[in-house]
Amino acid sequence: LQKLIHLLQATDDPLIQEQALITLSNSAAFSVNQDIIRNLDGLSVIGGMLSDSVPKVKEQALNALNNLSMNIKNQEEIQVYITQVCRNVESAPLNSNLQLAALRLLTNMSVTSDYHHKMINSIPCFLHLLSEGIERTQIQVLKVLVNLSANPSMTKHLLRAQV
């Protein structure tokens, strides 16, 4: 895992980055690896890939963070990227794998109400995707909206949102 994280930092080759992120994402399916990746500063390295210009690299970084977000300590570190992830949802092509990967991460990050406030500005976008997206996009957006709606302090933001 340490070598993969170092590889991500050392290379500019998008194909190598994509493969390293896929491997890290698969490794993160095991809870013991989630802690190891966090302790190796892997979350910030992977999070840094969210600003990559190559959509496939960004998508795989989102997938890796999604798997890593199953851990509360990891969520505490990943939450700094929520605003950027929301921007990825808004700027990604409609119904793209990149958009879906970002929505999946937001779904996990919105299971508890700890970070809902960071998603408030994206509610109009979520509602737009609900009306314009295809079924798989709509389902993922609904998961985020259901999580947000479970928080009473989000009610006014959800009801006042302009689509």
TrEMBL record:
Record has Cytoplasm as a keyword: no
InterPro entries in the record: ARM-like, ARM-rpt_dom, ARM-type_fold, Armcx_regulator
Protein name: ARM10 protein
Domain Armadillo repeat-containing, chain residue ranges per copy: 1-163
Organism: Phaetusa simplex
Compartmental location: Mitochondrion outer membrane
Keyword tags: Membrane, Mitochondrion, Mitochondrion outer membrane, Transmembrane, Transmembrane helix
Residues spanning the signal sequence: none
Record Pfam families: Arm_2
Main location: mitochondrion
Membrane topology: Single-pass membrane protein
Source lineage: Eukaryota, Metazoa, Chordata, Craniata, Vertebrata
GO cellular component, one term: mitochondrial outer membrane
